[in-house]
User: Fold this.
Amino acid sequence: MANGRPRILIVGGGYVGLYTALGLQKRLRRGEAEITLVNPESFMVYQPFLPEAASGNIEPRHVVVPLRTVLKRVRLITGHVTAVDHERRSATIEPTSGPPYELGYDVVVVAPGSVSRVLPVPGLAEHAVGFKSVAEAIYLRNQVLSRMDAAESTDDVGVRRRALTFVFVGGGYAGVEALAELEDLARDACRYYRTVRREDMRWVLVEAAAGILPEIGEGLGEYALERLRHRGIAVFLETRLESAEGGVMRLSNGEEFEA
Amino acid sequence: MANGRPRILIVGGGYVGLYTALGLQKRLRRGEAEITLVNPESFMVYQPFLPEAASGNIEPRHVVVPLRTVLKRVRLITGHVTAVDHERRSATIEPTSGPPYELGYDVVVVAPGSVSRVLPVPGLAEHAVGFKSVAEAIYLRNQVLSRMDAAESTDDVGVRRRALTFVFVGGGYAGVEALAELEDLARDACRYYRTVRREDMRWVLVEAAAGILPEIGEGLGEYALERLRHRGIAVFLETRLESAEGGVMRLSNGEEFEA
Assistant:
């Protein structure tokens, strides 16, 4: 206790950390507790809207919540918690700049969130991009448009085909929504290009399981699958990406192409 | 001539290249000429508004003009023109992807624009950021706020002082406007921080000449200088940055500090 007030430490400012802090801030009377939140960034990313940010349907800045402005009664430390010694009620903070230090607490909430999982596929780490941050969303959008620019700027058939092939791995929410939003963006952008048509593009979704979108149940998953295929998207089920070395995609079903 | 129509090649899609293309597009009848514009990006950056984009007073996306959408009758190639053989009326294009190729023309307009000048100051290239692109504007904004975050997240006096010292080199439009807009942003942002006050920050402008803003004349330049100093900004005239190695700024007037 500091001055008789419990010190509450929240590790991580994602959805869970932010709502914990908001709830505490609302329920506690002024001066009843000291709340500290530690997060690598000064903002929280609302992940369900990331695909819309990638396609430009939502402004990227509207997908982030600036933590300081909503958590007025919380002390925000930007950095990492590298260790928690719960016996001593002390956490090790590594701030953005400067030496690490110890921070005492009475109550700790651990909500560190998740990071993109990179499957051990040869070449994937070098050629693929994750989808957890706003920077990645903006990168994906720019990447699709710059690949269309590249195709427009050359007559080389091989360069064009490779530039216009887009591969997504994983048929969960992130993969399917990102693909659907970006394909929509690209389809719409075609009207600004002289030589790039929807038919020139190849959109591919690779999923190891027998269906997509397990989160919404089998029936809806099948409906979504049918809609994707109806839109001309190649969906490979029960298929794994075996390697992506040098930008050459090798699938477990024998398919092989550049992207 | 291609099909009897003159082929016009515009090298560079900055202010000059864009307005040349817009003017031609407006004055020429459909089919009267073939206009091609080559630019590394598919957009033009309106540089006078960059400082406002850096401070967040203007949305970054409103500072760029998407070339394809405004130049509907122009062919846009994203890439570089690496050589112009005017005797043969042929330019070498290096597209974003794929091998270089030759492009014939009848008329060429060369408007390649400028790039940030990095003075040969030891350590400057490693520690400084230019100010010509939207990415640099956003980087500057994030850099100022993340330095304030860093100061808030530690009690180390040295780390705090260094994090809160901002140095600008060059008293022309770019340097003065960037400093003024960012200082304004930081001053305003202070209310979201518990430990960072305006008085804790040090803003420094270094200019080799005897005055600032030569573009607007001596009288207004002196007025601007007075306003900056009134706002607590340290302006060093007839002073050069001699080195920035390891983040330690050494000025020609003997001043030395970390930033």
